Amino acid sequence: MNQAIKRVFLIVLDSMGVGELPDAADYGDLGSHTLRALCGTKQLSIPNMARMGMFNIHEIGCGSPLQQPEGCYGKLAELSRGKDTTTGHWEIAGVISPNPMPTYPDGFPQEIIDELSRQTGRKILCNKPYSGTQVIHDFGREHIETGALIVYTSADSVLQIAAHEEVIPPEELYEICKIARKIMCGQHAVGRIIARPFVGTWPDYARTSNRHDYSVEPSGTTLLDLMQEAGLDVIGVGKISDIYAGRGLTESQRTTGNTDGMERATAIADRDFTGLCFVNLVDFDAVYGHRNDANGYAAALSLVDSQLPALMEKLGEGDMLMITADHGCDPSTASTDHSREYVPILVWGRGLQAGVDLGVGETFADIGATIAQCFGLDSTKLAVTSFLDKILK
Question: How confident is the model over 77-129, as pLDDT tens digits?
Fold first, then answer.
């Protein structure tokens, strides 16, 4: 173990991309730049991330760089084929996905729908790519009248099932999603099955925080697996457990949103542990990015930025704070889907160098390799490059 680092706090700003990747055209994402879109609003104020070096990132194309950033900064390309949450998080933890997960732009095959209906005893509504808020508006009343499941997808590799909590309680919906997870295997192994509970009366339905994701298991050994096997603490905050199908974690805490996620991470900083606190802040993507709400996204990022000092004050010489993302979701483009973008990597710690330009990394997995090296793990299993030696004093 590298004695310099005892605890790592890794925060994923879900969908906070920093500019199109060279192959963005293959995904229909030319011109995407999530952070630049936020800079175009009047709501963005992220002085703490700026001090860490956010606007000093190579060719960032927005914001104002600082003369002397207090953190280490760079951006990372995605080596995997895809632009979804599962693929991005897996790559962060060292698993590269050479083949994209299956998507269903025309809806799921009839045999899949028939089998889901047979095993659940419920009819199926929708079966199309759909906005999560619009689908409950359009099919909610029929669902309440008939008890049928609202099944839909998106441009991502997902099968989503929406149900009113008074018609199908969340726990029952979770069991239905477990059935769907078993059905969606082999060539139909989508990245995630997502339970989408909602409440209210038409037309004022609202999704609740009782969402639950059922991910396909990672296809290889992850950083989390290595850490757990070594007896280290791996604390997941938010939907981390869902993304990795529960693998590699020693503790999991669900959250109600970004603010709750940051408060939990800050509380965990008071604890004596050795290992990783891995946080996903999903509101940027789910609440703002997919709804093309640039103002709301910028305000939400500003709020998280304002929460950073409370966490940073609790970090000592043996702690490392890392901030990154898993893909983009530019709210200023016509698309409401994820975008194929670089992600930022900001690293800060009292025992680390300041002002180090990490440049442009070839893969998100450099993060996993760096954390593995902190704890003396065999990062060669992750087959990528650590940047730890660049940032240690």
Answer: 999 999 999 999 999 999 999 999 999 999 999 999 999 999 999 999 999 99
Q: 51 in a domain, yes or no?
A: yes
- Indicate whether 25 belongs to any domain: yes
Written as one letter, the residue type at 83 is: K
Nearest C-alpha neighbor of 213 from the set 198, 191, 235, 184: 191
CB 133 within 8 Å of CB 200 = no
pTM of the model: 0.90
The domain containing residue 237 runs over which residues? 7-98+217-391
Strands 124-129 and 357-361: unpaired
Amino acid symbol at 11: I
* Structure tokens belonging to residue 385: 């490059």
pLDDT, tens digit (0-9, with 9 covering 90-100), for 291-300: 999 999 999 9
3-state secondary structure of 15: coil
The DSSP letter of residue 380 is: G
CATH of the domain at 129: 3.30.70.1250
Any idea what the Cα angle at residue 52 is, between residues 46 and 56, rounded to 5°? 90
Per this entry, what is the length of the chain? 393
